[in-house]
Amino acid sequence: MENDKLLVSSTKTQVRCKPINRQQFLLRPVDVEKLIEPDHPARAIWELTGKADLTPFYTDLEAVEGVAGRPAWDPQLLASLWIYAYKEGNNSAREIARLCTYHPAYQWLTGLQVVNHHTLADFRTGHKEALDTLFIEILGVLSHEGLITLERVTQDGTKVKASASDKSFHRKTTLEDHLRLAREQVKQMGDPESEEMSQRVAKARERAVREKQGRLEEALKVLEQMQAARSKTSAEKEDKEKQKPIRVSSTDPEARVMPQGKGGYAPSYNTQISTDARAKVIVAVGMSQSANDGGELLPAVERIEVNLGEKPKQMVVDGAYPTQDNIEAMAQEGIDLIGPLPERKKAPWDPLKRRGVSPEFYPQAFSYEASTDRYTCPGGKVLVFETEEKQGGWIRRRYRARRSECRACSFQGQCCPQTQKGRSLVRMQLSPEQAAFQAKMETPEAQQIYKQRAGVAEFPHAWIKDKIGLRQFRLRGLAKVTMEALWACLTYNVCLWIRLCWRPRRLAPV
Ligand code: SF4
Questions:
Q1: How far, in Å, are 164, 394, 414 from residue 328 at the CA level?
Q2: Which pLDDT does position 148 carry in this prediction?
Q3: For 440, which of 36, 255, 428, 458 is 20 to 30 Å away at the CA?
Q4: From the CA of 438, how far away is ligand 1's center (Å)?
């Protein structure tokens, strides 16, 4: 062992390694233009934002020629920084400010300047109308390239988690207690100028407490609105929900608890995305506080029309959208709606087979008479209307035979072997528009179109969640999360343009 040590020691004395000198100072020339390659996506983003009309962003700027004060950051730069950051899966203003100090792409965009994180954060949420206009401008560029036709548009929603935990949801009494405490804290806070701690820390604390108070006041306001809405509906219809206390998040009062795709429930927002099937361009983005997608189809069509000046010719949707209202509204708008029939989710024949009903006694064997609203069974008995239920906007009417007649019937073993009551049948009550929709969806052509839905509709959701990392919102409140989703969808469209249309220019030789 001793000999081994000596051997290592003597070997080390013989080799020579390069020394590392961290005490030196260097001055290196930096060619900013060469910081990134000619085909770097940051160049494409700068080129595209340069093509867009960013006038709405400039109207708010206070720094103008002839007036004293620091010049403002160029909105084209701030927009490009955010788009590039989202593309790289980074949605934090602080992180972008940090990256500006050393990352070549951010340094190229800023020209080696460092943008303050407050400026970046304010820019992201401070220009809703200007951001909408930029989104439309980029759609114009994509449309000009032939990537948008509006021949076929898919509509789909995904639940994105809110920046709030399950534990932040409280009843009214708890929210009132928290608000009382926050108000006392605000009262007890001294003048930040006279605090012993640093003024910066004192002001930050004061701001945090005031923001908390504001959020609690907002939560109580939302809770009262929800209570008023519930008592209005409960007055007409007594239900168990009336007994359940309403809870609202003290962190993000506008978030709602929604079922998640992978199971379970979480505070979320429902992000609605409309995608043109030609090249999977996102043509409209919306945000909803409702977990149910059914009410989101008409607003989506309106958003598409606002963004592109015309309605889509065909909308392809999943099973949550073809409600009676939506089918009728799409027929009125002249839009071809493609979606699954409710029967497909719950085939009526399978339960009959399980219950041992012979095929000769399946519903086709029963004749319906519209004038009396009755069915006649193969045994010559009548089935009369019993109950009506709504399922996804479709009305299901149940008809039933008399128990005594079925018990006495020689066909009972084949017709209703397991039921203690008389044999029943379900009839869908269809409006003319629903009947036309049903007939269309039974054709192989419509079914073929519907099969393409998932590939188009779910691609942008997956991309935004996986590439941009938008599985949970960083911001709070409906207005701000809408803007966060809009930035993500804008980035998605810009990346599509880079992939399908952008041709990098050669750099001029030095
Ligand atoms: S079992 Fe009832 S419903 Fe079925 S054929 Fe007989 S009477 Fe009609």
A1: 38, 12, 39
A2: 97
A3: 458
A4: 29
Question: Of ligand 1's atoms, which has the minimum distance to the CA of residue 378?
Answer: 5
Packed helices 128-144 and 478-500: angle between N→C axes, nearest 10 degrees = 20
Query: Given this model, what pLDDT does residue 271 score?
Result: 97
Q: What is the pLDDT of residue 268?
A: 96
**375: helix, coil or strand?**
strand
Q: What is the pLDDT, as a whole number, of residue 288?
A: 96
Ligand 1 contact, 415 CB (< 6 A): yes
Q: Is the CB of 409 under 6 A from ligand 1?
A: yes
Is 335 in a helix, a strand, or coil? coil
Q: Are 363 and 348 in contact (CB under 8 A)?
A: yes
Q: How far apart are CA 114 and CA 102, in angstroms?
A: 10
381, 400, 419, 421: residue to mutate for ligand 1 pocket, most atoms within 8 A of CB: 381
Alpha carbon of 115 to ligand 1 centroid (Å): 80
> Which regions in the chain score pLDDT beneath 50?
1-2, 6-7, 344-346, 348
Angle at 119 between CA 113 and CA 121, to 5 degrees: 125
Does 138 sit in the ligand 1 pocket, CB within 6 Å? no
What pLDDT is stored for residue 1 in this prediction? 46
- pLDDT for position 341: 81
